[in-house]
Batch of 3 targets.
Target 1
Amino acid sequence: MKLHEYQSKQIFSQYGVPIPKGRVAATAAEAKQIAEELGGRVVVKSQVLVGGRGKAGGIRLAKSPEEAEDLAAQILSMEIKGLPVRKVLVDEAANIEKEIYLGITNDRAARRPVMMASAEGGVEIEEVARQTPEKIIKVHIDPLLGLQGYQARDLAAGIDLPREHWRAFGQIAQGLWQAYLKSDATLAEINPLVITAENTLLAVDGKMVLDDNALFRHPDLAEMRDLDVEAEAEIEARKYGLSYIQLDGNIGCMVNGAGLAMTTMDVIKLFGGEPANFLDIGGGASAEKVAAAFRIILSDPKIKAVLINIFGGITRGDEVARGILAAMEEVQPEAPMVVRIVGTNAEEGRKLLAEADMITAETLADAAQKAVAAAKGGN
Ligand code: GDP
Ligand code: MN
């Protein structure tokens, strides 16, 4: 689960990271009022769950409350990378001398969290990572020992941070690590962390991604979920207890079992196709659940074909087939369907589906090839 900038910065601040004064507003009038309270010079920042807001015109500096109101009205009517802006953060404007990057994520290969810093912070950090990765300094954190003082100093030295800022930098690094650890985050990032004209350090931007699997331990954080900007299909899936993740391809997948779903996606790719989603309907799925899964898959306009791959163990083939048929009546899909059902009651399931004009397949390879061909319009 991604958090908005204002939410991330609030959490950082609870762990001692200095952030600008500011508040979030849903209307231009509110933005104006906040700007008045802050003394006029503010930055108006779109709150959407994507990066690169600055480049998209979603971060603007205002010199007066009136200007803040105008800019807020403009920004609140924008869409950034397809997401409507519903809130703006109005922060006291910082006088920025230098922009630094500081972030933590999991390094799976190292099996540890890694803290990264770069002197080249700001809006081009992805470019820095691609073109001059040596400008990103990394330290791996032992989760039992936590971030050590010398590690924060190594980062400060590595990015040539002037000595006078080391103490503050160390506190910010420690705060960010604590925020990451205590929130069960998978990403905590300050970009930019700025040196101000007043010679202080300030977290001007903030981003956090929380581990969904640990959210049950954090009811207060779970409440921050912004349903508004999540893919509607993913909300619907959660309601039915389905594991669904939308991807970029055009072949919808309905599979029971996470491992089988991963395999199905791999085999689709092996034959030159691209999966449109990961979907695990789980064990023992009822016809109702299958119907919901089917509706969710087909709600994605990118879909050119659907591959249904069911291994009948606890899940019964005929139940799955009945769910699919029920959903087909409702949704009237145009995309071709390829079905592979094996295991418990597979025969009955196949018989039911044969009547519904579906392409059947014996093996997963066969099914994947047929789905890829169908998606390319070759069927
Ligand atoms: P992002 O584009 O989504 O990463 O949004 P950021 O919050 O990082 O803002 C983008 C850029 O806007 C920053 O790198 C800064 O250069 C600039 N910016 C953000 N806040 C301020 C501010 O308070 N004062 C000034 N002068 N620039 C700001
Ligand atoms: Mn940023």
Note: The first strand starts at residue 2 and ends at 3.
Target 2
Amino acid sequence: MRRELDPEGATARPAREKPAGVRPQAAGVLRRNDPEHWTKPGPSLYPHQWSWDSAFIALGLAHLDNHRAKRELESLFASQWATGKLPHIVFNPDAPPQSYFPDAERWSSAAVSSDAPSSPHTSGLCQPPIHAVAVLRIWETAQGKDERRVELARDFLRDTYPRLLAWHLYLTTARDPEGSGLVTIYHPWESGTDNSPRWDATLEAVEVGDLPPYTRYDLKHVADPSHRPTDEEYNRYLWLLELLKKARYDEATIYESHPFLVKDVLFSAILVAANEALSKIAAAVGAPDEERALIEGWIERGRKSLDERWDPDLKLCLDYDLRAGKPARVRTVAGFAPLIAGGLDSKRLQDLLETLDSPAFAGHPRLRWPLPPSTSPEEPGFHPRSYWRGPIWPVANWLLWWSLLRVGESERAERIRRATLDQLADGGFAEYFEPFTGEPLGSPDQSWTAAVALDLLAAGSG
Ligand code: 2M8
């Protein structure tokens, strides 16, 4: 296994000996976080497999070792629920005790739902569906290589396509019973941007009931508790978990009574982009016309519904709280969702680029690197050190870079690519960065940070 991740002889050197450049260092992070066939998001804070982390990790691994990249996703797909849902966490039975909470026992997924796999255990939530994009990248990076590698990649596409289709079908039906084109999430953890002020108003309305006691282990893995969500937020996260468990993770029951039901525009836009990738995969594997038409329909409907969530004053797209019946008027990177979904008219594109370049985001005069903070520094909920409330996330930069390339904004994309790589060369592969000082924060040696660095590097000369 270790040999597989050995580009340019990275394993031959002790990690600290020589700062040999971003690529071998990034490969070293992924190698060290690799217990076997899948990758921990971070060395100690995150000892299990996370869904969208693994997809980003596979994107990066595709440039190092195609076979290992496939294994990453295969091990995630092996835990797909009967409903098609890809769980947000696949629990590692070998994780040290008391290393991450909530653990498998707290989720009790297999005990309460016959749709959940029982070995290994999983959480009961899901995360943004970037997986098809990673599958396509594995296919793309195999092109032009030896015949055997191309054949193996083709087999992988064939095996994976039905799983991806089931996953997207789940999201477009169970998570969108209204047929609106937007995905409903049940928990901030599903958004991947956990403590973003996007969720403040919805969470405030959640009344925490009789919560079983718990101990947070995440705080012992970061330099300062202010990097992580607050205890108040955790109480609400854990209460929502209790409610989901009580509903036996049954979608219809959740829809009836759950207090956190939000149409997430970032999640929905990633689904549109993933459907574009799925459409290419469907063509490559010769999928039936009806399935290809279904996927095209999802793309169209997704883009249209994101357009309906556009706020002309903020010049951003906004999430919609189904319970409160109103949008969350907060400026965060999620607002760039239409850029990620693509297919924009030129006016909408110009508006988004204007917002991106403005002092509300990448044009803020105090920024260490011209990259968009996760929450606009002009928002009252902004906090420069707290997780998704302001720090810069390399994985979010990747999403914007990739989306800008897809809409033909190559110069802007290149600026983001260079600034991200400069930031990583300066601060290492941190989970996130303080926007004004560039200080690395959160978990050090975060796998998806290393993975997106590899993909960014592969796209340019350095
Ligand atoms: C963070 O979320 C987990 C809960 O899922 C946590 O804070 O404990 C988020 O950044 C999420 O997007 C990410 O997938 C996960 C692992 O990197 O960490």
Note: Strands lie at 49-50, 89-90, 184-185, 262-263, 310-311, 316-317, 320-321, 326-327, 432-433, 440-441.
Target 3
Amino acid sequence: MKTIGLVTGGGDAPGLNAVIRAAVKTAVGEYGLRVVGVEDSFEGLLGETRVRELMPADVRGLLPRGGTILGTRNRGRFVVRDADGGHHRRPEDVYREAVANLERLSIEALVVIGGEGTLTIATEFDRLGFPVVGVPKTIDNDLAATELTFGFMTALDIATEALDRLHTTAESHDRVMLLEVMGRHAGWIALHSGVSGGADVILIPEIPFSMAKVAEKVSEREKCDSQFSIIVVAEGAKEVEGSEVYQDMGDAQGSPRLGGMGHHIAHELGRLTGKEARCVVLGHLQRGGSPNAFDRMLATNFGSAAVRALQRGERGVMVSLQAANIRTVPIADAVANLKTVQPESQLVRTARDVGVSFGALNEDDYHKHEIC
Ligand code: F6P
């Protein structure tokens, strides 16, 4: 193998550039390979291709830099959705064009850095016989077969800092402050930041909530002389027998976009408790900017390990974090199911032990004694 390609796909996440840097340095320095960066995700492989050679000098200073120097897309021609967003089709002609272009460019294998959507596209290249190795990226941490994705820990720090800041203003004004965080259909960012940031209520997609229970928790805190409450809401949270709230329903080339649950809850809580309730949507602040130390380390480890895996002849695998070591797993295992929070997991239990409410209907079963 003489030339490999690098692709970054899906929503950006802190650490993408650190992966690129590590992959280039390992490929060129350790194995004497040529590295070609594909721009704007897989879209850069269609039509007039958009690619550029990456030399070690091109990745200098990239370790702390947010975003991706290659550009990325979380919509495009490699997945076509039905009008109702249900069925997904992967048009064979689009993939064949991309593979033909890769061959024309003498790229013999791809390191694909992405989340569930991007890695599912990568499995299609593998099925067509084009060698790929995946690197698990997403602030949502919802990829199976790896303990962590890079980007998550930085998003967690940002959400935790936001909760710390909301605490002081909520307390000064005796308000209920809600923080809506990202995470798609998984509650990892909300759960972890809620515990780290001392939230009173954590609402996640995996535990449907009752608005009355959330209002009850706010009122209980008043009785205990806490005139303010902090609530962290995952964008994919839903009420018991309710559904998620979307900002837009997407189209043939883009998925529906979640968002709006935080404002909805703030409005309802104001009505039910008589308290002033405000919502802050953290949004893309969770994805922008510099990766934290952990993500720089994990991304570097992943980027380097992905090139080593290709060099060993591994194909159709993803590098994965398992008990502090990097191993490889079939990409198919990583994208088969979303990794979501288990409602009976240890961290959920711990949160309940320290008085956090998840707004669940059976919440009373967990609170044996008042802890004012
Ligand atoms: O998957 C990462 C993510 O940030 C999700 O948490 C969020 O739902 C989505 O991407 C937002 O995407 P966009 O950048 O298109 O708004």
Note: The pocket of 6-O-phosphono-beta-D-fructofuranose is lined by residues 11, 74, 115, 138-140, 182-184, 235, 257-258, 287 (CB under 6 Å).
